Amino acid sequence: MVTKTAAKPKPRPRDRAKTETAILDAVSRLILRDGLSGVGINALAREAGVDKVLIYRYFGDLDGLYRAYAEHGDFWWTVEEMLAATEGATDAADALKRGLRHHTAAMRQRPVTLAVIAAEPANRTPLVVALEEVREKRSIELMKQEALRHGGWGDVDIVAVTALLAAAIDYLAARALKIRVYGGVEIKTDKNWERVLAAVDAMIDGLFAATSPAKRKGTS
Amino acid sequence: MVTKTAAKPKPRPRDRAKTETAILDAVSRLILRDGLSGVGINALAREAGVDKVLIYRYFGDLDGLYRAYAEHGDFWWTVEEMLAATEGATDAADALKRGLRHHTAAMRQRPVTLAVIAAEPANRTPLVVALEEVREKRSIELMKQEALRHGGWGDVDIVAVTALLAAAIDYLAARALKIRVYGGVEIKTDKNWERVLAAVDAMIDGLFAATSPAKRKGTS
DNA sequence: GGTTTTTGTCACCATACGGTGACATATAGG
DNA sequence: CCTATATGTCACCGTATGGTGACAAAAACC
Q1: Do A64 and A141 sit in the same domain of this protein?
Q2: I need a labelling partner for A203 at 20 to 30 A (CA). Which of A159, B2, B94, B179 fits?
Q3: What tens digit of pLDDT does each residue of A160-199 get?
């Protein structure tokens, strides 16, 4: 009979680059399948088909692996991309609406990012922290650029409003990964996302209509 | 010298009721300290000062313990409480504003609920599911009651709007447990919560001002 | 060809987990 | 008083975890 060890060891080809990308790819797969907390050394080595000692050798420890993963991936929209998406906007309200729609699409396209966001409040790994830093930096930079474009935001507390709406979108999108319902709204279909985004649009329109015109050309 | 085992065993008094509440109390403490995923059999037994076998005896298994915990606690506002909070509202917009403010206060008063919400998308334990059911039921019931009070919501898609705003509030409050910043908004202080709530108010006002009047007495 | 370094494999460690069986003793029932 | 049951304690199981040291062999270097 054929014993397990004698069957066909088929040793891994000696190629560090390939091994490293195999590991990093396995991280994505594991995050998607089991969430951030599912990315442990043993599960990861198993998933990547790699001995775990190689992970230690190439990335130091789990945190090093997270950091490397955070640097290698595309987890967030870029400021340029976002500015392009809001380019033709007629006014600040329009820019905000377009921006949030682009944000929504960008998030829904990145399930790994959503999974990280979902785990964010609970598991605070270096990957989470790294992603957070990127987000903060780009959001702030984008705010600055958009403000220049439209000459400020009138009376609207743009930081609070975007924080609120972006938080809502992130949370709903993250929930939609594994759960379907929130407050009676099905959040997995495009149709219902459109419903949510329509509500966002309406709120932004109302907000700018109600508060801005009074001082539209007033004291900045 | 005094050995550990011979020192003073001080056996636990034989009182099932006390043991059970000790266990349930330890669940709250553990959730607050380590999050939902920190509530394991061993850690729990340690925290409660109880042998883990008693947990199995009294609650079956971990899921049974979660279920018992879900039934025993006060995790969410009640419909009556919420209706009282919005009692003097002048119109639908005002009711919604008051409701969301009460919701915010209620959430911030219940750190355990926030911790569960934080873990919700990731760890899907029976406790999370039970809490979710309560929320869904009460939200829907509340919507119904409020609609009766104010004769509908005009053109506002109230379900989408409240889902969106409640999601934002829940997420920000849950994040605030362990993180401080989101999109440039410090979310731990009362002052900045007021800022966020002011933005919510402004959006609601704008929303109702912009969309409702057109058909205020129109086709339902 | 011989040596050194790199890459990969394997066996092992201490620890923690969820879960169970056997035992001791306090309390309640007869 | 004797017995049965309820409560609590202890030792243990199998499995998984994060992490490390020893070894084999391919590659690179001289």
Answers
A1: no
A2: B179
A3: 999 999 999 999 999 888 887 777 788 888 999 999 999 9
Q: CA-to-CA distance for B119 and B114, rounded, in angstroms?
A: 9
Give how far A139 is from chain B: nearest CA, Å. 7
Calpha distance A94→B164 (Å, rounded): 19
The first and second tokens of residue A39, run together, are 């990315």
Task: Spell B137-150 as b/e; 16+ CB within 10 A means b.
Answer: ebbeebbeebeeeb
Question: How far is the C-alpha of A166 from the C-alpha of A172, rounded, in Å?
Answer: 10
pLDDT bracket for residue A212 (50, 70, 90) = low
Answer whether A166 sits within 8 Å of B183, measured CB to CB: yes
End-to-end Cα distance, chain B: 83
Q: Residues near B12 by Cβ (< 8 Å), separated by ≥ 6?
A: B19, B49, B50
B175 contacts A182? CB cut-off 8 A: no
Residue with tokens 């390939």: A18
Q: How confident is the model at residue B131 (pLDDT cuts 50, 70, 90)?
A: confident
Same domain, A33 and A139: no
CATH number where A48 lies: 1.10.10.60
For residue A157, give the CATH number of its domain. Answer: 1.10.357
- Non-local CB neighbours of A198 within 8 Å, separated by 6+ positions: B157, B160
Confidence of residue A7 (pLDDT cuts 50, 70, 90): very low
Smallest CA–C1' distance to D27, residue: A14
Nearest CA in chain B to A158: B199
B183, A136: Cβ pair inside 8 Å? yes
The answer to whether A116 touches A127, Cβ cutoff 8 Å, is yes
